[in-house]
């Protein structure tokens, strides 16, 4: 599926990222655990080079737990610190401070030996839209009693920092990265999970592609959710959407099946995890074994 992207937005978000990143010691890139590769923007790796980074596999409640484990191990082998999060239900966030300390340990010891006072470590949250950046920040802020620092009166409005621990502060605004659309398959996966505004998408075509994916990769989940017979499962994805619409009684005034409504429902249910916990992509080695 062809998805349009607007370079105008990109220039502005890129500039903001480049300014904010200068203020921190460590960056957390939030990705969606259902697409840990497609929702990651390699630009950050270029900008941040070999400095300490954490990948947060968020929405792990919606992903296949075995796949999330495999992705964690895979990113750790690439040199990232990795946490598995379910920010919505406040799970996994408490691992972040400890991981920051361990990733910055050498640098802080070096600084201390040179007689440099260790100020609190500073980190920022980044990621493409809708991966859960604000939810992570709000949960962390809530836990820390929303203890904001910085922004002294009389001084030009500066950055707001949330003190998480005595030795750790978090920038309260996330760094927004843009999705990578060069590869149409990546764009489609980002659209499947709902991280692209649906207004710019053809939802029917997207749902057909999702059904085709499920027929191929997770036929069981599809048949269980919608009560499809084996013969129905083998039909074209367009026909499968009609069967589902029929089962759910999605009819228009003249009696024809309202496939647009069915398309939206299937996408919504998939995104909410109602078909089950599904990861859409695997690390390279695992993909080869499948
Ligand atoms: P942002 O655009 O990256 O800041 O994303 P938001 O924090 O606004 O989250 C986008 C949507 O994902 C919201 O509806 C959140 O409630 C939801 N969300 C965030 N984290 C999780 C999670 O761990 N699990 C689930 N199921 N939903 C989440």
TrEMBL record:
Task: Describe its function.
Answer: Required for a late step of 50S ribosomal subunit assembly. Has GTPase activity.
User: Protein name, please?
Assistant: Ribosome biogenesis GTPase A
Compartments where found: Cytoplasm
| Residue span, CP-type G domain | 10-179
Q: NCBIfam families under this entry?
A: GTPase_YlqF (TIGR03596)
Pfam families recorded: MMR_HSR1 (PF01926)
User: What Gene3D superfamilies has UniProt attached to this entry?
Assistant: 1.10.1580.10, P-loop containing nucleotide triphosphate hydrolases
Instruction: Report which superkingdom the organism of origin falls in.
Output: Bacteria
> What's in the keyword line of the UniProt record?
Cytoplasm, GTP-binding, Nucleotide-binding
Q: Where does GTP bind?
A: 58-61, 130-135, 175
Q: Which InterPro entries match?
A: G_CP_dom, GTP-bd, GTP-bd_ortho_bundle_sf, GTP-bd_ribosome_bgen, GTPase_MTG1, P-loop_NTPase
| UniProt source species | Bianquea renquensis
Q: Give the UniProt family note.
A: Belongs to the TRAFAC class YlqF/YawG GTPase family. MTG1 subfamily.
Q: Which GO terms describe its biological process?
A: translation
MF annotations from Gene Ontology: GTP binding; GTPase activity
What GO CC terms are in its UniProt record?
cytoplasm
């Amino acid at each position: 599926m062809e998805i349009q992207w607007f370079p105008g937005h990109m220039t502005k978000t890129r500039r903001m990222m480049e300014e904010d990143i200068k203020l921190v010691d460590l960056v957390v890139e939030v990705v969606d655990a259902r697409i840990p590769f497609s929702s990651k923007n390699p630009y950050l790796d270029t900008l941040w080079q070999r400095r300490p980074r954490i990948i947060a596999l968020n929405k792990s409640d919606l992903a296949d737990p075995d796949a999330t484990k495999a992705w964690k191990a895979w990113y750790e082998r690439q040199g990232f610190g990795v946490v598995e999060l379910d920010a919505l239900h406040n799970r996994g966030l408490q691992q972040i401070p400890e991981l920051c300390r361990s990733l910055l340990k050498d640098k802080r010891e070096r600084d201390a030996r040179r007689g440099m006072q260790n100020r609190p470590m500073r980190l920022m949250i980044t990621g493409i839209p809708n991966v859960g950046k604000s939810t992570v920040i709000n949960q962390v802020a809530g836990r820390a009693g929303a203890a904001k620092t910085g922004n002294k009166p009389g001084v030009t409005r500066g950055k707001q920092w949330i003190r998480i621990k005595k030795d750790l502060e978090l920038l309260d605004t996330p760094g927004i990265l843009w999705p990578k659309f060069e590869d149409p398959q990546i764009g489609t996966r980002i659209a499947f999970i709902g991280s692209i505004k649906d207004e710019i998408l053809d939802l029917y075509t997207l749902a057909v592609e999702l059904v085709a994916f499920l027929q191929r990769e997770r036929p069981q989940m599809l048949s269980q959710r919608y009560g499809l017979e084996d013969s129905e499962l083998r039909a074209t994805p367009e026909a499968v959407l009609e069967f589902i619409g029929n089962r759910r009684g999605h009819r228009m005034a003249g009696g024809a099946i309202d496939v647009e409504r069915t398309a939206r429902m299937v996408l919504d249910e998939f995104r909410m995890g109602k078909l089950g916990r599904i990861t859409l992509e695997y690390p390279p080695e695992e993909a080869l074994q499948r």
